[in-house]
Amino acid sequence: MGDLSPNAEKVYNAMKKIGAFTVYKQKTADDIMKAAAVGKAIVA
């Protein structure tokens, strides 16, 4: 994933980890923030 910034890659990987890519498993920014261990401003 050379096209993503390090923070974007963390968020992407966290979304994959918690399964946030389907309509039926939508997650909030808080859920993704906790999984990615980054601030909410980076997730939002």
Folded structure, characterized:
By secondary structure, the protein is mainly α. The chain has one domain (1-33). Helices cover 57% and strands 0% of the residues. The protein has three helices and no strands. The chain has helices at 6-18, 29-36, 40-43. Helix 1 packs across helix 2. The chain is globular, with a radius of gyration of 10 Å. The mean pLDDT is 83.
- Helix/strand order: HHH
Secondary structure tally, helices: 3
Q: Work out the count of structural domains.
A: 1
Structural class: mainly alpha
Which range best describes the helical content: under 10%, 10-25%, 25-40%, 40-55%, 55-70% or over 70%? 55-70%
Oligomeric assembly: single chain
Task: Tell me the distance between the termini.
Answer: 20 Å
Task: Please tell me the overall pLDDT.
Answer: 83
Q: Please describe the biggest sheet, giving its number of strands, its sense, and whether it closes into a barrel.
A: none
Characterize this entry briefly.
This protein has 44 residues and is an all-alpha fold.
List the helices and strands and how they pair.
Layout: H1 6-18, H2 29-36, H3 40-43
Helix pairs in contact: 1-2
Give descriptors for this structure.
44 residues; mainly alpha; 57% helix; globular
